[in-house]
Amino acid sequence: MSESAPDTNSSDAADAPTRPFRAIVDADAIQMAVELVDALFDECHLRLEAEGLRMAGVDPATVASVELTLGRAAFESYETTGVHTGVDLSRLGDVVQMADSGQLVEFDLASETRTLEIHIDGLEYTLALLDPETIRRPPDSPSGGFDFAGEVVADADDFDRAVRAADMVSNHLALGIDDDEDAFYVEATGDTDDVSLALPAEDLADLTTGEAHSLFSLDYLTAIDRAMPTDAEIRLRLGIEQPATIAYEFADGAGSVEYVVAPRISSH
Amino acid sequence: MSESAPDTNSSDAADAPTRPFRAIVDADAIQMAVELVDALFDECHLRLEAEGLRMAGVDPATVASVELTLGRAAFESYETTGVHTGVDLSRLGDVVQMADSGQLVEFDLASETRTLEIHIDGLEYTLALLDPETIRRPPDSPSGGFDFAGEVVADADDFDRAVRAADMVSNHLALGIDDDEDAFYVEATGDTDDVSLALPAEDLADLTTGEAHSLFSLDYLTAIDRAMPTDAEIRLRLGIEQPATIAYEFADGAGSVEYVVAPRISSH
Amino acid sequence: MSESAPDTNSSDAADAPTRPFRAIVDADAIQMAVELVDALFDECHLRLEAEGLRMAGVDPATVASVELTLGRAAFESYETTGVHTGVDLSRLGDVVQMADSGQLVEFDLASETRTLEIHIDGLEYTLALLDPETIRRPPDSPSGGFDFAGEVVADADDFDRAVRAADMVSNHLALGIDDDEDAFYVEATGDTDDVSLALPAEDLADLTTGEAHSLFSLDYLTAIDRAMPTDAEIRLRLGIEQPATIAYEFADGAGSVEYVVAPRISSH
């Protein structure tokens, strides 16, 4: 929760002199933002703050969480008094998908009724918002942060190929860094077939070595992979039997998303 | 039924000196014609008259009816002695869909066997026709006609956006004209979300005002909307708790279709 | 089985001085080869011989068999000591489909472990091979060969149109040659509708007449038709109540496939 922002569900919001949130945004940017969060769950926290729009949530099994920011720079116009609410992602996604590429989507939040008005070229959609108290909240990171051993910057395209191939043979895959070989690797071992992808430092945009190896469920990685734009440059932070973070920018750098995925117990 | 045309199912037809119907038509025109009627039901009346081909039918619940004409101008060649028969639209649709865009489709009706021969570049499909007596007939309009209050000429694209958005929130929608605001509107009220589209006169090709408001089932409007070409200019006639008519031209003006949809009981 | 080639499942292979099979091939050629065999069954014999790669199999009901060759000319590089093994076509197909058009796919067969390594731009997929003794073998042709009466060379496009139309009305179709009319024909008779396509010699690339007529199950012809490239020139050999062969080249002539389909008992 953003401490500095008044809650729309509190009585303060109703006294605010202006509309709590009005903004106009390019359809492609908001469609992408919703899709990246919708990949993992149906409902999320929506925070409308001075710096931009933020969405956050965690899946029902608390294996994967997302934090997404779409900064003011992505908006044609943006004004807010600060809002914390909740949103149904599949309904919001359906609505913003009605806009054609390049069209503008206009938001207007009427706090009194807890509804978000969405305007697309004459069409007005009134979306009921959700009480944020009813939506799972991403767990706090450990006080000292995760113990990441290394960091990889790779093409989404390479990650995509490895995840799709792994999904043919198994339901989990290992992400790791081979410190000796100076390489990032993806491995999946199935009942009959195996998949591996090793990318040495020279095939990566960046590599901070440090031995790393953790096993993840393909359910989550496949969902994250499908939503990922193919031209993204993704930043992975990895450790030994640690969560992985997968982060990248979108909307010409105005948006950023970070997924945190918990590891499976591995016998490696 | 066209009174002046002999029925192929009568003995007269068998004595006719020429084939009752021979015609050659561009694949795109006949594909569109069949699709526009097939949107609502599986079987329809088929009348082959001097002015052109006509299809008509009504859905099993008698909520929506269609009258479609594909005039002689749409045909490369067209000769008929006048025929009234019935046709299975999904089978006819499958056959004409075999032709590529720009190909010619040739029809030859052999009345003796109640079958329609369809030729597409060497392929011959023999389609069994249906006894028109077994096919529902669109109800007659009331003697004085419907009591339409106003008429709207709009882009199919706007109608499409409103119907698709309404379908996200409800299973019925209201079509109306706001006499004071000089605007055509579409409204749908769902359990949590609402949709509305208001098009003032300046955003319409034409508007004849007169207060109008009726509620319709989205099942029918969605089916009509899906078949509609996106570049059509549609003419809607509306009243107060009255049926709506939705009409437009296709095949470069050689074809025309009119749907009549009965209203739902509204508590508005 | 290729008599001159050592079997990878025998102890000889393990003693071979070089890898039993290493090859690099254009993605499009191998994707097409796998798809043409996968159309009819899931597992097939895979022979890696001096002349090229061969795949062969027969469907569970022993109605349809395939023999496919992808010659050395289709490969960027190709070396083999001769191998006879078995392969799961849907898994092999999924892997080679990961390559983009124009990419190279590299194969490396490690006989010791009966696995085929497949490399696509950094990705390594280890595919478990199958014991060829467990895979159905296409039946031998009768000693004198089939009694074909005539041969037709036609466009895949015409065959495709006839098969798709026949599939709308029936579950079997007749392929034949009308000796008097000098024409190849396809016919299907349904409960209500009929389909026929007659192609006279002048509409065919070649026709060797001889009265022919046999009835075939559409299940098999539809599967063969769907996998067929639309620009292929297909060679059909037909007889009276005899199997039909359907053969064509692919991969710019470096590949060839021949299907043999047994006839149904016909009352014609």
TrEMBL record, chains A, B, C:
Alphabetized UniProt keyword annotations? DNA replication, DNA-binding
Question: GO molecular function terms here?
Answer: DNA binding; DNA polymerase processivity factor activity
One GO term (biological process): regulation of DNA replication
Residues of the Proliferating cell nuclear antigen PCNA N-terminal domain: 32-110
InterPro entries on file: DNA_clamp_sf (IPR046938), Pr_cel_nuc_antig (IPR000730), Pr_cel_nuc_antig_N (IPR022648)
Q: Which SUPFAM superfamilies did the record assign? A: DNA clamp
In which domain of life is the source organism classified? Archaea
Extract the Pfam families matched here.
Answer: PCNA_N (PF00705)
State the protein's purpose: Sliding clamp subunit that acts as a moving platform for DNA processing. Responsible for tethering the catalytic subunit of DNA polymerase and other proteins to DNA during high-speed replication.
Subunit (UniProt) = Homotrimer. The subunits circularize to form a toroid; DNA passes through its center. Replication factor C (RFC) is required to load the toroid on the DNA.
The Swiss-Prot or TrEMBL record describes its family as follows: Belongs to the PCNA family.
> Any idea what this protein is called?
DNA polymerase sliding clamp
